[in-house]
Amino acid sequence: MSSKADSTIETMRSPYVMVDDFLPLDAAEAMRLDIDTHFGNSESHRPETHQVWNYWFVPGHYAYLRTTPQKLIRPDRVDNFMQVLRRWSAEALGLREVTWPYLSLYVSGCRQNLHNDSANGRFAFVYSLTRDRRTTSGGETLVLNEGDLFRNNVATAQSGPGFYTSIEPRFNRLVVFDDRMPHGVERVDGSMDPLEGRFVMHGHIRDKGAIVSGALTEEQVASVVLEALIDFSGEALARIRLYHGPVVFRLFIGASGSVKSCAVLLDRVTAIDANDLGWPKMLSSLVAKLTALKFPEASGETTVTQPVLMGTSLFRPGH
Amino acid sequence: MRVLYAILPGRFPTVGYDPGLWWDSVAVDARYQLSSYSINFDWWTVLIGQPFARLLLDPLSPLERQHRQAAWSANDLDVDGLAVAAAGALKRCQDPSTYRSQESYLETLAPLNAFLGLVNRVQSEFLVDVDVGPHVRNLDYSNSRSLVDYSRSSGLLSRSIDAAIVKVPATDDVVLLSITSPEDLLTALMTARKFRARRPSVHISLIDHGYENFSLSGTIETLRARRSLDSVFDTIISSKDERDETVPALLEAIAAEKAPKGFIRRRDIALPSRAPPAGGAPFPPPPTFAPESILWTRLSKRRCYWSRCTFCSQNAKFDAPQAPAHSEILASLDRITAYAEAGYGQFMLSDEALSPSSLNLFANEITRRGLRIKWACRSKMERAHTPDLFDRLAESGCFEILFGIETISERILALMDKTTEGLDAMNVAAAFRAMADAGLGMHITLIAGFPGETLQEVRQTVAFIGRTLGACENATFALNQFQLFADTPIGRMPGEFGLSEVGKPGDICGPLSYKLAPALADEDDRLHSEMPRIRDELDTMLGWFDIEAIPGGPLARHLYFYSGHGAIFKSRADNPFANPLRTAELPRPGNPKSSSSIAAAE
Questions:
Q1: Residues of chain A contacting B73 with CB distance shorter than 8 Å
Q2: Best CATH choice for the domain B294-482+517-597 from the list 3.10.620.30, 3.80.30.20, 1.10.10.10, 3.30.420.10
Q3: Do B71 and A21 touch (CB under 8 A)?
Q4: Do A88 and B71 touch (CB under 8 A)?
Q5: Domain coverage including residue A301
Q6: How many beta-carbon contacts under 8 Å exist across A and B?
Q7: Rounded to an integer, what distance in angstroms lies between the CA atom of residue A139 and that of residue A114?
Q8: pLDDT tens digit string along B425-440?
Q9: Does residue A315 lie in a domain region?
């Protein structure tokens, strides 16, 4: 992993991010060509190759078709996509677990009503293989704005963008958003031709412990970081319950074991009370504790990316 | 009055394109300060180097940049590292030592090839190609309104042009532009908007729009009615034939504050013609990525003397079909002499087909004058192309002739209306041998898939070219696929050639879609699906196939075949690419053969 120097790291605080041209264009086009080929030559379709779609219909909520992507796309291409996404997620978000995606198809009439995935992960990802030039409309990912949509707008006339962000499913665009955000998919209208529809690969991104690269081992790092976290928890035990969400730190540790810098890579911690202003101070305290840590001496530098979760577990038991 | 001739972002610059005779007279007219600037050279320098990543990331927020760079890293794309290497390679393209051996040329082009590939992989706005420059994806280049609309965009292409024009002073009163393709037209529109934004009073004129198969001449009235291009350019010179007289008249009108507007012809400028100043000054060699200055020019503004080929749209540019007169050739040679003195070492004569008699006269006159230049030309194979003529041409400095052989099928040649009495495949083979004996290189162009042509006929042509060129030195080729253009005999009478459902032409010239009669369609489908294999077979027969596997190989082959780099090599006695069948095994990844053994073998 080639991490940027701490001084240039920007903290991700927004509820969503977009990365256009996520894969090299030829890699994205090859996956799309597999989809096009699957739907081509309809006379030769056979049950074992083409009866692959699950029509996911939940009245009032969901209506779209989904499958596992390798049923249409060459498995090594899906593997490559997943490998790149995992690397990107580790580098950009500091979260290294990415669930195997669904490939979904939205033809005319398909949609997702507003919902959240608070129980599914930290972030959702949606990677689009939808053609930029298509004869359908809709298919945008809708992410509701943060805050109180009623109180924030009581005196202001608002329409769509005032309440939510609408993200076009551009070809080769990756969208990542906070799983706790209410979101949906705009109904697709127009042609029934599947090739004109919305194709996306989507799933969830989660934390899976620290990411350590460099001279120190994970074990050497874990025990030291734990000191800071225990110390922080001891000081802030009561208040931690007022907050919810992930914060990710990136520590640069010199060969001497001293922390050269500690940057906040991601901060999606949300106060239960919208008026709470205490989190920045708590975050500074945690940064200070991590910066003060002393790791074992080693033969070289080490980079540690450490996710920390505020609030109770987001996961269902056994998930 | 300050007048700028701006060379637009477009194909990879390895030659200078002659702006036309108007340059010579305006350059010595004391009323004007005439200069030229290659925005194209700067554009490629911006694109192939570290500025590329900066331009790509500039509009993003710091967080978005971080995430985009993380995506490059996750994809193992070392954008900055490759950019540095490619920028170095670009500079080495100007160094003569790069062209000494296959190995040094391939080594130079490898990082350039890799970076061009990367440019096309990490952004989706446009495809960059050494042949055409930037080509915006999903844009309708056949429609002037699409181009005009897109020229307002602020995407990567726009930002790259902004970066390329920063060194051009915004002090010119008049900017003159020439285009050679629909892609150039888009960059012309974008560049014009930028000049206008910097200096609203500037007069911007599109003075030339004819090159090879591309010309606006056939649709000029439609364009005039649509009011698209003239919403951006102040004036557009309608006729290429009149360009050299119209540009000086236009400048005079602008100076007199009587500037015309829109599509203009010489007669639209009411000012009386002034006699051009005595003498002239050559167009100074523009910077290119080649070690020698090569001028892409013409002997005359005449059409091809044959002017009958049913597929050919090149004639749309000019009106006069007669071969150039003796006096015209001598005048052109006077001009070429002046240009040689100004620093040009090579001349590529792009007249569609110079007749054997014109070539004979031109070569004899060069020899008589003792002029030492290197030149290449195009011709149509005739019985008059005798060994004696080839010897005379070689003696005068000619190093290559392009022949459009198209096919050896007499049936298809008849359909193309390109039959020459008494000239069959054996005569053509003999002519190739005579050229080789004279030390002349050749570039042979073929057309596969002419309506009604069979796969077997294409294979016979390819086998013939493989056999005959394999025995020659400095022989390159282009196996083109038939394209239908509106302004051609077949475009005007598609039904007579078995074509139907011909696509409606846009107002910008380009190939048209069509359907073949059922009796021809199946064979044509087979032929099209076989074309990649046939191309590979021809490459294999002539020793070019392996080069594709070498880093830098695909770009090296392409530039050798189709750019000024080929002229650099072919005009030398010790061309390392003269015949890959005879030269040492090319260096390949994993090939244990050392560089010294390759150099020794050469």
A1: 1-2, 87-88, 91
A2: 3.80.30.20
A3: yes
A4: yes
A5: 211-310
A6: 67
A7: 13
A8: 999 999 999 999 999 9
A9: no
